[in-house]
Amino acid sequence: MAAVVLVGAQWGDEGKGKVTDFLASQAQVVVRSTGGNNAGHTVVVGEEEFKIHLVPSGILYPATICVIGNGVVIDPKVLLTEMDSLEARGVSIANLRISPNAHVIMPYHIKLDELEEESKGNNKIGTTKRGIGPAYMDKAGRTGIRMGDLIEEDGFRRKLESNLQSKNLILEKVYGAKPFVAEKIFAEYLGYAKRLAPYLADTSLLINAALERGEKVLLEGAQGTLLDLDHGTYPYVTSSNPTAGGACVGAGIGPTRIKNVVGVIKAYTTRVGEGPFPTELVDAAGEEIRQKGHEFGTTTGRPRRCGWFDALIARYAARVSGINAFALTKLDVMGGLETIKICIGYQRGDELLTEFPLSQTALAECQPVYEEMPGWQEDLSQMRSLAELPQAARNYLNRIKELTGVDLFLIAVGPRRDETIVLQEAF
Ligand code: IMP
Q1: Most CB atoms closer than 10 Å: which of 56, 157, 241, 359?
Q2: Residue 384 belongs to what domain range?
Q3: Are both 260 and 351 inside the same structural domain?
Q4: pLDDT tens digits for 167-186?
């Protein structure tokens, strides 16, 4: 049996889509275990580009079983739109399975996400406004509606009406917003339930049975370590646990099933939304990386904040998820720079920090301590082995390996499937 967990090792947007796609080609089952349509994976197949938010990227392989696990929050309208658009492009969704325990994002979650953000003014989180936080709040508050509830009409109606009593009070009294009408939501969501019912299955049972048969299971990541509710840069985080432990919970498998935890790191750092970012580049170099790396959100289109690679973040991510191999993406984007910087520590007043601090106040006060290395000018996209890479690029990779203590298993030198240097097996 072999389950591999893939986690984002920075602030999300590490290029997980490409690595997931690579690993999915070897797996019989691919599972999405946390988050919702706040995520966006870009996968390039030949001349075609797929931007996928909820359906696991394994769907692009016809024989692969794709699971949306219990830890995911699902906006059924978005999911159906995605399923329809995949089918319209000739991708079969017959192998999709959805956990009845996955929670449903309701229209009031989306509205509340928007209103809560607005009310925070300058202290806003910068959420994707997809209703993710409010849906997980209801899950933790034990008032959430799950996919399995949608298909039980009477129970669904009761839960919806009861939820709307308190949600409408908040909407009207706190925010002065319009209340929702239960009957309207009921009719709309019942329609979604009818279409999604055939895909519901006991996904924990399915995944564990596949593992028993000796099949390969990939738990594909979403978001990233620093967006983790517990281990991320709270409160500027998402409302789930995108670290390796969260993947087990969200898929319904035990930690003993995990063979490897693969962390995805980008050759530089990006962040969307608010919060401190020590290596952020607000100059021309940052703009150059943004343009060259197409660093604009897959989900919201927002320009991503860009900065130098931060070894403290990668080492921290490796620690909290037990990462034993890194996939490094977008090495090609770093080409053409005279010099490249790597952050090896933070200066906070008189103190030199060598580990990522837990407090946001501390992080905001940190100045990055850099090591400078010569850059390279060559185009890397045709290179398929370490030996072909320019010496300066190899030095950069070696330094990342030394500073993080984690081996590299894959290097991406372009967005296409074949623009990849594979160094080790993951399964
Ligand atoms: P939420 O997940 O929409 O509640 O947003 C919370 C924070 O997580 C915001 O800073 C978002 O920009 C960030 N976030 C959520 N999902 C992703 C992602 O897939 N990539 C990058 N940032 C994300």
Answers
A1: 56
A2: 3-89+202-422
A3: yes
A4: 999 999 999 999 999 999 99
